Amino acid sequence: MTLADIEAGLSAQRDSLDLQEIVESAATFLEGAPAREIIRWAAATFGDRLCLTSSMSDALLIDLVSKVKPGVDVLFIDTGYHFVETIGTRDAVRQVYDVNVIDITPSRTVAEQDRDLGPRLFGRNPDLCCYLRKVEPLNRALEPYLAWISGIRRDESPSRTSTKVVEWDAKRQMVKVNPIAAWTQDDVDNYIADNGVLINPLHYDNYPSIGCAPCTRQVLEGEDPRSGRWAGLGKVECGIHL
């Protein structure tokens, strides 16, 4: 290891500590703030080193962020297993909103993964499949940024109830901003209706939570909105937000 390597490591540690201090302060003073104010803070703080991620379940977050930061980078993980409606929603977002949609792809195609690890990995080892097709590609894509915006909400599942509006993403050593963390489903529905937000047409066919086609089923009346994800596999998160 050279002196330059050591200095670079120390600089990265200092930057990380500085970002963590920003997170602690922002999490306190932005709690309870409107989503647009949280986004405005993130855009002013991180500039072009801020991005957002979208699964293209709807364009609510894209609509919110693009009104504050036009041209923002939107990372879309193209797993190779998406519903055709999800790909169509992505294409529509490119046409409608002032954003820069960036397609993120896994290191292996579906065919290559089947060849190397066997077919239907999503049924045999869904955690590994999600890691290879979602988590690892996103980790790689987020490297140039200091902060990313996600659309997770506290009411979506028990694992998300403690979500803060600004958090330190220790796994990726960066800031994570969750501007709609405190929103309810009614808040979401009202915003979509009031602003004419694009939504994935699968929502009209009882898919309230949309992931990869092999691992997503329709939800029956009275079921938890995320019960259609990895049904019967004992899995509730893909790993991106853990």
Summarize the structure.
With 242 residues, the protein is α/β, with parallel strands linked by helices.
Describe the protein in words.
The chain has 242 residues and is of the alpha/beta class. Helices cover 42% and strands 11% of the residues. It has helices spanning 3-29, 35-46, 60-68, 84-96, 110-117, 121-124, 126-142, 185-195; strands at residues 50-53, 72-77, 99-104, 147-149, 166-169, 174-177. The chain has one domain (18-203): Rossmann fold, CATH 3.40.50.620. The chain has a 6-stranded mixed β-sheet. The protein is built from 8 helices and 6 strands.
Over all CA atoms, what is the radius of gyration? 18 Å
SS summary, helix count: 8
User: What share of residues is helical?
Assistant: 40-55%
Give me the secondary-structure category.
Answer: alpha/beta
Strand residues, percent: 5-15%
The CATH architecture can be given as 3-Layer(aba) Sandwich
CATH class: Alpha Beta
The tally of beta strands, per DSSP, is 6
- Parts with pLDDT < 50 across at least 5 consecutive residues: 1-14
Task: Give the overall shape.
Answer: globular
Q: In the residues, how many domains can be counted?
A: 1
Neighbour order of strands in the largest sheet: 3-2-1-4-6-5
Sheet with the most strands, sense and barrel status: 6 strands, mixed
CATH superfamily: HUPs
Oligomeric form of this entry? single chain
Report the span from N to C terminus: 32 Å
InterPro entries: PAPS/APS_Rdtase, PAPS_reduct_dom, Rossmann-like_a/b/a_fold
Protein name: Adenosine 5'-phosphosulfate reductase
Domain Phosphoadenosine phosphosulphate reductase: 56-217
Pfam family, one: PAPS_reduct
